[in-house]
Amino acid sequence: xxxxxxIPNPERKPRFSGSKSSSKPKIHQKSERxxxxxxxxxLDRTQAEPQPSEEQExxxxxxxxxxxxxxxxxxxQEHSINKIWITPQLRYDPRFHTLLIEAKAxxxxxxxxxxxxxxxxxxxxxxxxxxxxxxPYKYWELDDLITQAxxxxxxxxxxxxxxxxxxxxxxxxxxxxxxxxAQGLVIPQRRAVGITSTVMKVAAGALASFPVARVVNLSxxxxxxxxxxxxxxxxxxxxGDSLSSVQFTEATVLVVGSEGxxxxxxxxxxxxxxxxxxxxxxxxxxxxxxxxxxxxxEIYRQRSQQQLHLKIKTxxxxxxxxxxxxxxx
Length: 329
Hints:
This protein is an alpha/beta fold. The protein has helices spanning about 25-40, 55-60, 70-75, 90, 95-105, 115-120, 140-150, 165-180, 195-205, 220-225, 265-270, 290-329; strands at about 65, 80-85, 110, 130-135, 155-160, 185-190, 210-215, 230-235, 240, 250-255, 275.
C-alpha cells in the first residue's frame, strides 16, 4: 500500500492563537488593531445611556413608596425612612413640614427635587410630589405574633397566605384585615411575595398596627398555631363548605391562596375545615383580596352577634336576680 501524503486543511484553525502557525507577526496584528481603533468614529456623548431592564428597574424601585397619603402615614407612624425626595412646594405644606423636621432629626435625608426627577424615579407613576425610600420591613417571630394576638382579644383572628405573588393583592388583604379587626398575618418565605414597598403603599399605613410573621414552612406554622389553640380554616373555591354554614366560634386562622392555584394540597390537609363562597354569576372566581374581605366580614359578623347575645343574656339574668330579690323583700 502506498504511503498517504499529509494534505493540510486550510479551514482548520490552530489550537492556540499564539502558536507559530499564525500567518502574520504579532507586531503587524497590533498595528492593525491600533489602526482599526483610530478609524472608529468618536463616541457621541449626547447619545442616551442604555436603559435598565424591567428586572433591574424593579430592583431599583423596590424600596420606594410614593404618594402623599402613603408617605404621610409612614412619617406619622415613625416608620424607618432612609431618604425622602419632595418638591419644594410640598415640603412646606403644613401636613408635611413638621413631620419632615422630625424625620430629619432622626437621620432621614430630605432632598428637594422637581417633578421631572420624581417621574424618572417612579416611571411616571402618580407620586403626587413625594417619594420615600423605606427601610426593609422587620418581620415578627411567629411565637411573638401568637402571644400578641392572644393578649389583644380573647378569640383572635389571624390570616395566613399560601403562594400569593401579587403585591397589590397582599397589600389589599393587609389593609382590609387590619380595618376589620384581625390581629396579624403569616406568610411563607418562598414562592410568595414579601412586604415590599408596593405592599406598603397599597396597605396605606395598615402595617404600622398589623404585625406580619414570615415563616420557612407554612405547614409547620399552621401546626404550631393549632397547638396554640387556633382553628384553621382554608378558603377553597369549590371543595369547601358554604360560608353561611360555617361557625367561627374559636380563635381562628384563615388561610387564603393565590387566585390561579388556590391552596396547595399539603396546606389543605393542615386545615380543620375548608370554606367556599357560593357564586351565582358566570365569573368562576373572586379576587383573593375580595374573597378574604368577605370571609373576614362573616367571621366578625358572627362575633358581633355572639357578643350581643351574651349582653342580652347577661342583662336578662341581672333583671331576673333583681326581680327575685324584690320578691324576697
